[in-house]
Amino acid sequence: MYYLIRGYICQKPFKVIRKYYAIDENRNIVAEGNSWEEVEEIMKKKGYKRSQYDILTVVEAENG
What we know:
Blueprint: E1 3-5, E2 8-10, E3 14-24, E4 29-33, H1 36-46, E5 53-63
Antiparallel strand pairs: 1-2, 3-4, 3-5
């Protein structure tokens, strides 16, 4: 079986990894989590309102 990763054909299976980061108004990373909900919970505990930050999703593939 062949897999297509970023335009390259690969024979090994791969695992997709997602990380979520909360970024404040000054573009600082203020929280990191494995799900959107986890990041929102961390930010709520830190006292941030939802309008004060954005959530960035980073998707990576690694050989598995």
